[in-house]
Structure formats: C-alpha cells, structure tokens
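Methods — Computational structure assignment.
A single polypeptide chain was analysed. Its primary sequence is given first, followed by the predicted tertiary structure written as structure tokens.
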Amino acid sequence: MVEYASGSIHFSGLGSDTDFDDMISKLYKIESRQAQQLLRWKADWQTRLDAFQQIRTEMLKLQTALTSINSVNKFLVKTAASSKPEVATATPGFDALSGVYDLDVKQLATQATWSKNTGLSYKTDVVNDSGANATFSYVYKGKTRTLTIPPGTTLEGLVNFINKDSQNPGVKAQIISDSRGMVFQLRGMDTGYSASLAIEDTTGLNGLGVDLVRKWQTTSNSAQLLTNYADGNAVINDTGAAGTFQYYVDGALKTVDVPAGMTLQELADALNAKESSYTDFAQLVPDGGGAGVNLKLSIPDKARAFAPDASCTDFLGMQFAATMPTDPADPIVYGNTSVNTGTEAKTFDFTMEGVNNGNPVTITVNPGETADSVLAKLKNAVGDKAEAKYTIDDVSKTVQFSITPKDVTHTVQIGAQGLAATAYTYPTASDWAIQQNVNGQVRLNGWPAEPDYMEVESNSVTGLSAGMTFNLRSVGQSVITVDVDTEAITQNIQSFVDAVNAFQKVVMDLTKVDTNKKVLSSDYAESQFEMQKGSVLTGNYGIQLMDSRITQAISGQAKGFMYLTRLSETAFVGDMFSSLSQIGIVTNSQEGSANYGLLEINTTSRIADQAIANNADATTILFKGSLTLEEALKKDPEAVARLFAAKLEGQSYSPYFEHNSHVDGITKAGIYDVSYETDGSGNIIKATINGKTANIDNVNRQIGMFDNKDPAGGIMLDIHDLTPNKTFTGQVGIRDGKVNELLSMMQGTEGFLGERGTLKILEKNYQGIMDNIDKKIQKEDERLIKWERTTRLRFARLEETLSRYNSINEGLKSQISQMQSSTKK
C-alpha cells in the first residue's frame, strides 16, 4: 500500500513484496556521497581554522609574557639593602650605579598641619548656628580658597565641604576624637617649604576662631615683610649675636649672614648681592600707611620675546609666517611642503628665559626645508621650556610657527628659621597647634660638606644620584648597598625562553611531518589528515612565513645592535652582546631530541672563569666563543638587559657624532650609515643619513633626517668633530632588543595579531572557504530533497503497476486453475 502525506511518500504493506523503502535508503546513501564529502571537507577546514585559533591563543600568551619585560627598567632588576631601614630605604632603577650610598638625614620634609580643639562634643554638633552664611577661608601653596558655609552645618558637614570641594587645591580636613572633645585638623597633602598652609578666616564658625599674627605677605613670586620700619637705617639684629636670614628661590634654600647691628638697608644690599642675576631682588618699599618702609623680595618674569632677523621678512610677533608656493601641487599644504622656496637660507632669532642660557637662538631655514624640519629644530631648541608647533592656513597658503613658553614663574618664600624680626609668616595663631611645612635635609656620600645639607621637598627623593629614589623615614644615617639582582634577571630570561618555546612547540606540533604515522586510503579515511603524514597545518605558507620571521628574530642579530669589532689591541666598537647565542641562549639542533628546535640556556662554559674574573677585554672573550648566561651576567648585566629589552634606544658607534634624538612612530630600529663633509671654515657643507641627504644646522652643530617615509626619519645627531676640509663617516643605531622586536611583529594593525595581520588573513580566507562549502552543501541538500521526492514518486508508480500486474497474475492463475479443473473432468 502506498501512502501520501504532507507531500512525502512512504510505502506500507507493499503489494509487490518488495521493500522499496530500504532500496531508496540505500540509493540515497549512494546519491549523498557528494554531500558527505562536502561535510568532511568542511570539517577539515574547520580543523585548520581551530589550529589558527590555537596559534593565536599561544601568541597572545607570548605577547603577555613579553610585555611584562619590555623595557630595560623592568628587565634589569637591581636591589637596595639599607643598614637602617627605619632611617631610609631606596628603590634603584635600571640606570642606578651599583655600590654603596652613605645617606645622612638631618631633617624630614613635613606637611603643614593646623589643629584645634573645637570644644564640640560630637561630629554632629553644629558649627554654624548664626542663622546666616559663615566663611571658611585658607591659603595653600599660594592659592586662596574661600568656602561659604550655610547655617546649620555640622562639624562633619564642614569637613565634607572642604574635602569634596571641586576646587580644593590639595588639602585634607579630618576630625580627631580627643578626651576633651572633637579636634578639627586641616592638613596640606604635600611636603616641603613650597606647600605652605594658613587658615585665613573662620567668621561665624563655632570653636574655630583664628587670630593670626602676620609678618609676611606672599605671592607666587614675591614676599613682603609687614613689620614696619622707620627707614633703611633701622637695626634688624639687636640681639648682640650673629644671625641668619633664610629664603627660597624656586625651592632652593638661600642663606644670608646677619651680623649684630645689621640694618634693614644692609640686609637688602646683601640680598641683592646674593641674587645679582635679578634686578632689584630686594627693595625697601613704603608700608601700607606710608609712615615707614617694608622689605620686599620679588623676581619679575623676564621678557620672553622673539627678535626677528632681517632675512625673515614675514616675522609676526611671537610667530613667523613663511609664504608657501602660490600654486601648491596639492590643494592642502602638508608638513613636508617647503617653507623656504628661495635659493638662500633664511634665519630667525629668539630669546627665551631658560633656553640657551638666555642667549639668542638662531634657527636656519635652508632652501627647500620643510615645515616638519623647521618644527623639529624649534622643538630641539626649546626642549621642555616651551611648546613649539605650527598651523596651516590653506586659504592664504601659509604655515604659522609659534613658540609658547611654559610656566616659568619664579617662586620666592621665606625660610622657617631666622631672626625673630624676620621670622616665618605665621608664628602664632590663637588656640591652634601648627606644624609648619619644612624641607627635608640630607647629605649623600659626604656631599655637601659640613655644615651644609641638600634641601629636598619630599621624603621620596630623586635626583640625588642617577636612577635612585631614596625614601626617607627618620633622622639618622643609613648605608644603602645597591646590587644587580642576577637571580631576578635570570628568571626574566627563563620566562622569555619558556614563553617562546611554548609558542614554538604549538607551531611545530601543528606543522610537523610524522614519517612513522600510519595513513588510511581514501576508501576508509574520515578526514584528509588521516591520509597524510603531515599535521593540520603542514605546508601552510602563511604559518611557515610567520614562523620563519619569529625564528630569525630570535636567532639573528638584534635590530640596531652592532657586532663587536676590534679596532686595535685594546679598543673596540659595537655592542658587548648583539645576539642571544653570545650569552648562552641557543636553539637545540639535535634531531630526535625532545627539545629539538626549542631554545636552551647553555650552562657549559667555553671561557675560563679566570678570564671573566680578571675582567678580560670584551673582544677576547667574545671572539673565543659564546659565554654561558652566568658568565654574561657577570661580565655586563646591563648589556644583557639591553639585548633583551632595549626599546628604540639611540646609540652612536662613532666618536665624531652623538645621537641626540629620534621620533617615536617614525624612526625604525636599525643601523644607519652617517656621512658629513666640512669646508675650510669647519662648517658642514654636505651630510647624509642612511644614504639620503640630511638637513644641516651649523649653528647648533647638528644634522638630521626629516623624511618621515625613511626608516631613519626623525634622527637628530650632535656633531663633535668639525675639523676643516674633512669627510667623516660612521654609524648610528636605533636599538630594539629581542623582546620588543618580537612584540613589534605581533602588535599594530598589520602585526601577526592585527586586523590586517597574517593570522586574521588566514582565518578570513579559511572562513570564506567554509562559507562557500556551506553554500555547496545547501545546494546539495536541496538537490537530494528533490531527488528523494522524485525517486519515491517513481517507486510509488512502480509499486502501483506491480500491484496491478500482480492482481492480473493472480486472476490468470485462478482462471488457469479453473480451466485445468474443467479439463480433468
């Protein structure tokens, strides 16, 4: 019986005794072989895509491991041990010199703190019950802040007003519980003399009245003594003994001796002699009432002016405008457009306080020189004293250069110690306990000599010695010993090796060929990989290329490093270490080894320990063969750290010139040839960097490459040798250690992990192949549905025909049987 239901056909109670369902099922299996092959094919591509994801995951792990040691400061670990940590400890940077530091702490830097017992019992007691607004005003670091305190404000509310004030200049209020009541405290959060604090006004606030005795009025760059003297002949030291007058200029402590009987005018004269670089530093000025004089100390800001040179006719105030070509090639003027289209150099001069010791600076704009080139010269000239920039006006076809000075306002303060007549600004305040802010005083390795000490504004002190941060804890002496932590450095190197090996192992497993692997024929294999000796990604060109680049980076010479070259028996040029093999890190090349193709740290010495101990010259050691890691760290730990973690460090390999600067994001790591020629006057007349013409600045004795499309673009060199009529050659390196070389391959849009990188391209390609297979599978499924429907219809008609003929056959059989029976009768 044939049944039709919902557009499908199936057979039930077959009249022909033939199982057509089974037959169709077997035919379907044969017919769907193409679809099954497509599914297996897609599964194979999915396996490859999963392999890329596995490589990506391992590379991300490698990236994370490398990022943790991607600077010399992270890599080169140094330790500091203090003989008296309760007095001082230290944190050494990578550039801190190993050795012993003798630190003498005479005084700690302190914060200014004002404390007063309010007479209130609880934090919730009201401090403003006047029914009107009250005032709380204070001065911190020269900045006055006045708060309006509304009626009904509690003591706790006042603290909240101060601490959550959006214009709080850096103070902290708190309430301290005392047996006598609530103590209000206001503290400056910075230490040192510049962090002065004074409560000026507490009108209308219960328990916080302030009664100040003021002797000095200060601004950021002046201090005026409010004590009134009849005239300059008034004696300011009538104690009969010698005294001192202390003050600060830009945070530096100055001391003037005040002998017995010194007059006010004599003190002013002594101060002016001390600060001779300033005009009228100390003056006697009329007091507010005009009945006498006061002493005033001040430093006016120096004029920050540009002086145009005659050859720069377009000079405009603090800017100069260079006329661009009338019809530029592009409608928009770019930074690489010439700002001097003439045939002769133009110059302009400027002077600025703090730049070139206040002397005029001359900027030369050579013919054809670009806006970017001029900007680089300006930035190099002003350093961190000002901001140099330019803007482009596309309408007028001009480029406007400007130099904006940064804040160089001088500060003047009065010392906390000195004669009573010229004492600190706030010696007393009614009912307030005041801790004055003072500088710390230290002496390092005997400097300065007795009885002087260096003044420091913070108890975390930098600048006393390169790379060292001293943490002052208390008064006393402490000996601090700084050593290289070779154990920590070794661990960093081991982390590098482990991370690289983990990644390499995954790549090798996914690309290896196993000659012992048993393969299946296409008749039995469920996957292409079961029919080949190779692995999932064997022969994949993209992975091979990526792996080759990483392997080459690991085993080759570090970018920007120069192999050590012997110049004479005792002199050499280059980097102590420029490849990992020189410090005992090699690739296992023994086939069959479990670590074949992976990095190993060599522990077998090829150099006599005595040679290292005797500090044999580097060439003798390196030319005999690679060191062990232990030997390399013993010889030069900083060179080891730079080999791993240098990050675009400039290094000259010539005595004729020195690396000055380069531009991050433009300058690439590498070794670049440098050449320059001088004329009979010692002026540079020709220069090249990386084979291309370099810009010349004879005023500042510099040459530079400003082509941002060249890998050497942005390099600026200081020239040391200007011997007349001579050609000089040498090399400059921009060094990238192994860690940053590997990271640069992975990072960025086009890095291995980037959106346009190798892995993403492979993943997109393979996903595209799988998407196309899905389309083919969908078409094949649709074809099989039609085939099955058509086939079932055909077999249904066949079943009906067979059933009809079967009925006829049965009828014929019956008739024949009847005829035979009749015949027999």
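Note: The mean pLDDT is 80.
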